[in-house]
Design goal:
111 residues; alpha/beta; 11% strand
């Protein structure tokens, strides 16, 4: 599916909730985010992504100008992901909503 999204020119939203996605798939998601020019919403909530996978996704977001919504609820993210998120917020102008609730993020890092 991810390979098909690289070339897709119509799909605006896709959800992979409860898909048991792990960090091994994050490199494919990164490439899709770099190549896809129409996807506006990506929901990866309720999966098994760690900080290292989120870092790869963020690397894809640096080069993405189209995604508006990223759902990352209930993964295995920690406060380390906030550092990657800070970089994205500085470099990506299109992202408007990021959902991170129900992860293991320490409140002190959010400041």
């Amino acid at each position: 599916i991810i390979n098909g999204l690289n070339e897709n020119k119509k799909l605006k939203s896709i959800g992979f909730e409860f898909s048991k996605i792990k960090d091994t798939a994050a490199s494919y998601i990164k490439e899709m985010l770099i190549n896809n020019k129409c996807l506006e919403e990506l929901n990866l909530s309720n999966n098994l992504l760690l900080d290292s996978g989120f870092k790869l996704i963020c690397e894809g977001l640096i080069k993405n100008e189209y995604l508006n919504v990223l759902g990352m609820r209930k993964n295995e993210l920690t406060s380390q992901s906030i550092e990657y998120l800070n970089l994205i917020l500085q470099l990506n102008d299109s992202l408007q909503y990021i959902y991170l609730c129900d992860n293991n993020i320490d409140n002190e890092r959010i400041n």
